[in-house]
Amino acid sequence: MAKPKLLACLLLLLPGWPVCAWDERGVSQSKSTAAQNEAVTDGSATTPDLFGIPSIGYVFEPEAQALQPVLGTPGAAVFGSKVELGSKVRRAWVSPRQSFVLAEVEESPGVLLLDLQGARAARTLSALPIGANQVAVSPTGTAMAFFFRNENRLQIASGLPDSPEVSSGIDLAVLPGLLSSLAVSDDGRAVLVAFTDAGMGAVYLIHSDQKRVITPVGDVRAMTFLSNSLDAVIADTAANEVRLLKDVTGVATNQILAEESRGISHPLALQVSADNSRVFALNSGAAAITTLDLTTGLLTHLPINGSASRLQRLNGDVFQLTDDSREPMLLLDAASPEARIVFVPKVISERSSRRSAFRDRLSESRRPLPLPQD
Length: 374
Known about the structure:
This protein is mainly β. The chain is about 10% helix and about 45% strand. The strands form 7 sheets. Strands 1, 2, 3, 4, 5 and 6 form a 6-stranded mixed beta sheet that branches. The chain is globular, with a radius of gyration of 23 Å. The C terminus is likely disordered.
C-alpha cells in the first residue's frame, strides 16, 4: 500500500501539465526543453514524458471538448491536464486499448480518426457522417457501429485503426419498434440490434445480407460481444436477466446466466473481462456491480458507493462508472485480485481558480474596499 500512496502524493504535487493539441499532421511532436518552457506561458505545449507515469486511460469531457488522461494506478490516480483535440469536438469515442479515438468535429462532415500515440496523421472517415444517435464499440475497439435514427440506418467502421473501412448504410426500417441497444463484433462482420415495441422486443443479427431474430426479449438496454468472438451477452431490464448468446452467426443458443432470484435487478450496462472469463453488469436496481464467472457460474455483488451511470472500459479490466465532471470519478477495478470500487479525485490545479474559490468564502464585510480613483 505504501507505493500507491506515495505515487498519489507525487501526482498531486505535480504542476499542471502542458496542453497537447492535434493539428492537420496529427499529434504534435515533442519540442525542445526551451520551446516547451516558452509554450507553457501560452498553454500550447506538448505533453512531456514525466517519470514514465502509468496511465489508466482517457475520458472525454463534453464541456471542455477535450480528452483528459487518468494518471497512476487504480486507487492511486489523478487527472492529468486536458488534451485538446484541435477544433470544437462535440463527441468522442476512445478505443478500449486507449490507442486512438473517433471524434465528431463541427468543421468536418465526417468522423475523424485520431491516433493517441502520435504515430499516424489524423484522417477523416468521409463515408461516416457525424450525428449518430447510438454508437457501439467492439470489445477491443477494432470496430464501431453507428445508428442514425432518422434514416433507420446502420453503418460499421471496421479495421480500426490501421486499415479503416466504412460499410455502406444498412437499412433497419423493416425491424419493428425502437432500437434500445447495439453491439458489434471485433471483426465488424456481426452486429446485434435490440428493438422494443410496446413492451415486447427481440434481438436481431445483422450479418452479410441477413436480418434474423436471435431471441425474443423484453427490453434489452445493454449488449456486448466477447473479445474476438461471436458469442455475446445481453441484459434484459424487463425480465431482470443476463443471458449468454453462443455462436450468433451459426446455430445460436441462448443461456440464462443470472436472473432476478439471484439478485439481478434492472441491469443497464454490460462488459466482459479481457480474457472473456467474467461478465460485469451494472445492476442498477440493486445499486451494485454484479460479476458473473463464466467458468464456475459464481455470482458476486459489489455495492456502489455512489450513483453509477455507465460501465465503460478504460484500460484492461478497469472501467469508468460515473461521468459527472463536478464530482470525483468512480472506477471499477476488476484487474485486482478482488474487484473493488475506487475513485479519482477532482483536483483544481489552476492557482487563479483556488484564489477565486477562497474569495467566494469571505464575507462581504471582510473584503477589501475598492481603491479610490484619481
